[in-house]
Amino acid sequence: MADHDFESGQSGASQTIPMQCSALRKNGYVMLKSRPCKIVEMSTSKTGKHGHAKVHLVGLDIFTGKKYEDICPSTHNMDVPNVTRVEYSVLGCDEDGYFELMDEQGETRSDLKFSPAITQADSISAIQETLKGADKDDNTVIVTVWKALEEEFIKEMKVKSNAP
Questions:
Q1: pLDDT one-digit tens code per residue, 110-129
Q2: Cα-Cα-Cα-Cα dihedral sign, residues 102, 35, 64, 82
Q3: DSSP secondary structure string for all residues of 58-114
Q4: Looking at the domain 16-81, which fold is it?
Q5: What's the Rg (C-alpha) of the chain?
Q6: Cα torsion at 83, 87, 93, 98 (round to 10°)?
Q7: What stretch(es) of the chain map to CATH 2.30.30.30?
Q8: Could you read off the pLDDT of 52-86 as tens digits, one per residue?
Q9: Are the beta carbons of 40 and 58 closer than 8 angstroms?
Q10: Which of 10, 16, 91, 134 could form a disulfide with 139 if both were Cys (CB 3.0 to 4.6 A apart)?
Q11: What is the pTM of this model?
């Protein structure tokens, strides 16, 4: 009988999937220089004397916003990251910038940190003011967390009305 390790907790889902370069589309995702990127520009050259059309890709890292470029033959495969999005209710934000979040099942976590480039807020105090204002108006602050390749980042923050 084979030994199985059921303690690892991995679902077996791949972090990336291969896709032919010519099948990629603008606003889709692709791995450029080992980083998950959103494709912002894409152009295809004509078939050259060596037989392959080339695809020029320009992408922005979905976590840092850094620009990456690559050129790939249209018939070759490129890795496409498996990007997931999860919404959390914000319970608070401490002085070090760590958010206290709760998912739909009531599970809490406090391991994600504030980043001004991602959450469209310029400081921790601005986030705390948003939370106070939402609480006063009986609203909920929601953040969307993006995950790809074992990285997680708070991508956006919005105030949701609790009015019926």
A1: 998 877 665 556 777 777 88
A2: negative
A3: EEEETTT--EEEEEEETTSEEEEE--EEEEEEEEEE-TTSEEEEE-TTS-EEEEEE-
A4: SH3 type barrels. (2.30.30)
A5: 20
A6: -20
A7: 16-81
A8: 789 999 999 998 889 999 999 988 999 999 999 99
A9: yes
A10: 134
A11: 0.76
